[in-house]
TrEMBL record:
Record Pfam families: Fe_dep_repr_C, Fe_dep_repress
Residue ranges of every copy of the HTH dtxR-type domain listed in the record: 1-64
Gene3D superfamilies to which the protein is assigned, alphabetical: Iron dependent repressor, metal binding and dimerisation domain, Winged helix-like DNA-binding domain superfamily/Winged helix DNA-binding domain
Name of the protein in its database record: Metal-dependent transcriptional regulator
InterPro entries listed in its UniProt record: DtxR_MntR_Metal-Reg, Fe_dep_repressor, Fe_dep_repressor_sf, HTH_DTXR, Iron_dep_repressor, WH-like_DNA-bd_sf, WH_DNA-bd_sf
Keyword vocabulary terms for this entry: DNA-binding, Transcription, Transcription regulation
Family note: Belongs to the DtxR/MntR family.
Length: 125
């Protein structure tokens, strides 16, 4: 997993946790991603330096406006790709979601628009 893909996975996980619980904690992020707490701490420090998250020293983690925009796009791409894989290839939800997780980091806007057209959804901007 490259650095950009890794950061996207962290952002998407924070987005989901924030959506469900209004914030995230390092322990929960580590658990969901199957990584160590020190790995989460290192990633959170980098995301904070980039202005994508707010992080209290021993507290909650929330997305900044920019972080939320990026993570929402990643999350929506994941859902779109997963839906496409389920509909076009008849994959079950788990298999489609697992593969969407890999694909979402490398897919082009042109391909996303083609998927949206296939699914009869509005195009990306």
């Amino acid at each position: 997993m490259n650095n950009n893909e890794s950061m996207e996975m962290y952002l998407e996980t924070i987005y989901i946790l924030e959506r469900d619980y209004n914030h995230a904690h390092g322990v929960e992020i580590a658990k969901r991603l199957g990584v160590s707490k020190p790995s989460v701490t290192k990633a959170m420090n980098l995301l904070k330096e980039k202005g994508l998250i707010n992080k209290e020293h021993y507290g909650t983690i929330t997305l900044t406006k920019e972080g939320r925009e990026i993570s929402k796009k990643i999350y929506n791409n994941h859902k779109l790709i997963s839906m496409f894989l389920q509909k076009s290839l008849n994959l079950d939800f788990d298999e489609a979601s697992e593969n969407a997780c890999r694909i979402e980091h490398i897919i082009s806007d042109k391909m996303l628009n083609a998927i949206k057209q296939y699914l009869d959804l509005p195009k990306c901007r």
